[in-house]
Automatic annotation (TrEMBL):
Transmembrane segments: none annotated. This is Hydantoinase/oxoprolinase family protein. Signal peptide: none annotated. Residues 588-612 are annotated as: Disordered. Residues 205-491 form the Hydantoinase A/oxoprolinase domain.
Length: 660
């Protein structure tokens, strides 16, 4: 038997999803996360799920892990002390940064500029220079470089970044300095910018490389510790790590370039949602992942996730390929309050978190939250997680009563108001990724997951017009399933900056051929068989004179495709302005066997009347009339009045307006 395990570590729970590819059996486990050392929660979960399946850890053929270690290191400012080596005269590159400031027009007045990952005190300038065509103007001064390396290491830096001007054209000077570091200090962690981001724009390239160095020691230590502990437990396979772009990488690559995994967790949910929806026949979906603190949403079209070229982590915008996820501070723990100044009800972004949590959790929380409002309205059962957690209904009512008293409403009206406001907040996030980017949300299904997503999905879909609502089996563990359906992925880029009309087919074929060769070489090194290898090409394009570009999938009529995409995103095209290609990239992917999930022919029967149902007792073909509640181990689904829910052949719950 071939057993494959997906592991997703969240802030509160560590989720595990095990499948037996031989007979399609599945096992699911939720275990408390251990923030001080996430590997302990993983080990506990692996032991529990292997025991539940009646197998030994040595029987696991594949383990894929979505982790927030890199994310937390940045958000909590607990990364390494980074030393930066750059070209002479460019020592303040991270501090000059860009002119954009967050917030309104006066944002520059109130902005507190974050400290970059490498301070000026830990920055050194190397004597070397290369021009924009890759020609050496000043050779690397080996003696001088040896001196600044020794100075940085002696000062106590924990990792080094080498980011030289114009190294995106040719990285040999960076590699030469990295070789000197290895000669003087074997094994010292070094990041070279031309390997992490071989693209122009020196600030973004330097920041991304420094962020890689910032999280590298912590991630490398975690991966090594986890792999060792699992080996001691009896696991024989390596632990693959989920990337931010919903691909996977080996533990060695994760330890070397952890910046590729800063959004590892959210990408797993998108991958799982897209897999479930595509099987059910819905390639265009909006993903809706609602947890305790926040909600993550994303748009997927034609069976593919939307991959962005940059992402924001903390206060830094770094250039790494990642699933385009928009996050809003709305979750089950979001606190409702009535400011005295306005007297208007507000929900979030403050959250009760996991400790003390909502009042209903009985852990000392007293402030009214979204979860408490759901309890008051009867949307949540008294027991959660298979009876492992009991809710304090009276505490929830008392908390929501404070809102009711402040607004002169009944208890139920106050609870309903809380839910209406948080639903509008989440619908606003969905509009950002759909309407504001030229997509009609009515042409997309809504995939609801996370612990709280199915509770609110019907109401949010009503606001968006996005049907059907798809609630997969065990929606609270969908991220762990997403880990299993992800394939290997890596990108190889080259900056060009050339007007489209001035490029020749021979020149482009030569560049793309070289990028493809690098992608194929990487896939062979990963052990990906030739029949599972895929290479796709993308051109980053813009109008001549623009400052930023958009990725355009490579195909015939590239310029027209760019014009159409620009018009979709921004509402106009510039017919009298030349377009130009900025970067060319090859995306290498290695397909892996997807888990075979249960499937059953639907049975006919009369619709079930409004009520509360256990999902495990529903068979494909079963139809439920709203208002109803469907409960399961890790989540609860609300079906509103005027809607019906049907179990499809893949055991998904599909919610549609009753009239349809």
């Amino acid at each position: 038997m071939a057993y494959r395990l997906g592991v997703d570590v969240g802030g509160t729970f560590t989720d595990l999803f095990l499948v037996d590819e031989g007979d399609q059996r599945q096992w699911r486990v939720k275990t408390p996360s251990t923030p001080s050392d996430p590997s302990q929660g993983v080990l506990t979960g692996v032991a529990r799920i292997c025991e539940a399946a009646g197998i030994a850890p040595a029987d696991l053929a594949n383990v894929v892990h979505g982790t927030t270690v890199a994310t937390n290191a940045v958000l909590e400012s607990k990364g390494a002390r980074v030393g930066l080596i750059t070209t002479q005269g460019f020592g303040q590159i991270l501090h000059l940064a860009r002119s954009q400031t967050p917030g309104p027009l006066a944002g520059w007045i109130i902005m507190v500029k974050p400290d970059p990952p490498a301070s000026l005190a830990d920055t050194r300038e190397a004597v070397e220079r290369m021009d924009a065509r890759g020609n050496t103007l000043v050779a690397v001064d080996v003696a001088q470089v040896e001196g600044i390396i020794g100075d940085l290491v002696a000062s106590g830096v924990e990792s080094l970044t080498i980011s030289l001007i114009n190294s995106y054209v040719d990285g040999r000077h960076e590699q030469q300095i990295a070789d000197i570091v290895e000669r003087l200090h074997p094994g010292f962690p070094v990041t070279i910018s031309s390997a992490v981001l071989p693209e122009f724009r020196e600030y973004e390239r330097t920041l991304t490389a420094c962020m890689n160095s910032y999280v590298r020691p912590q991630v490398a230590s975690y991966v090594d510790r986890l792999q060792g502990a699992l080996s001691d437990l009896g696991v024989r396979t390596e632990v693959d790590i989920l990337r931010s772009d919903a691909g996977v990488m080996t533990p060695a690559e994760a330890a070397r370039n952890p910046v590729y995994g800063v959004l590892s967790g959210p990408s797993g949910g998108v991958a799982g949602a897209l897999y479930i929806a595509s099987r059910a026949g819905f390639p265009n979906v909006l993903t809706f992942d609602m947890g305790g603190t926040s909600t993550d949403v994303s748009l997927c079209q034609a069976g593919e996730p939307t991959i962005g070229r940059e992402t924001t982590i903390g206060q830094f915008r770094i250039k790494v390929p990642s699933v385009d996820v928009h996050t809003v501070g709305a979750g089950g723990g979001s606190i409702a309050h009535v400011p005295q100044l306005t007297g208007a009800l507000r929900v979030g972004p403050q959250s009760a978190g996991a400790e003390p949590g909502p009042a209903a959790y009985g852990q000392g929380g007293v402030e009214p939250t979204v979860t408490d409002a759901n309890v008051v309205l009867g949307h949540l059962p008294a027991d959660l997680i298979g009876g492992e957690m009991s809710l304090d209904v009276e505490a929830a009512r008392a908390a929501v009563q404070t809102v009711a008293d402040a607004m002169g409403l009944s208890l139920e009206a106050a609870a309903d108001g809380i839910l209406r406001i948080v639903n509008e907040n989440m619908a606003g996030a969905l509009r950002v990724i759909s309407v504001q980017r030229g997509h009609d949300p009515r042409e997309f299904a809504l995939v609801a997951f996370g612990g709280a997503g199915p509770l609110h999905a019907n109401a949010v879909a009503e606001l968006m017009g996005s049907f059907p609502v798809i609630v997969p089996p065990s929606p609270g563990l969908l991220c762990a399933l997403g880990d299993l359906v992800a394939g290997f992925r890596n990108e190889f880029a080259q900056t060009l900056i050339r007007l489209t009309a001035e490029t020749s087919d021979d020149e482009l074929r030569e560049i793309l051929g070289g990028l493809e060769a690098r992608a194929r070489e990487w896939m062979v090194a990963q052990g990906i068989p030739s029949e599972a290898q895929n290479v796709e090409f993308v051109a980053d394009m813009r109008y001549h004179g623009q400052g930023y570009e958009i990725p355009v999938p490579w195909a015939e009529g590239l310029e027209e495709r760019f014009n159409a995409l620009h018009e979709q995103l921004y509402g106009f095209r510039m017919p009298n302005t030349a377009s130009e290609i900025v970067n060319l990239r090859a995306v290498g992917t290695g397909d892996r066997p997807e888990p075979e999930l249960p499937e059953e022919e639907p049975r006919s029967g009369d619709p079930l009347p409004p009520g509360t149902y256990a999902r495990a007792e529903l068979h494909p073909g079963a139809r439920i009339v709203g208002p109803s509640i469907v409960t399961e181990f890790d989540s609860t689904t609300v079906v509103l009045e005027g809607y019906t829910a049907e179990i499809d052949r893949f055991f998904n719950l599909l919610i549609r307006p009753e009239a349809s």
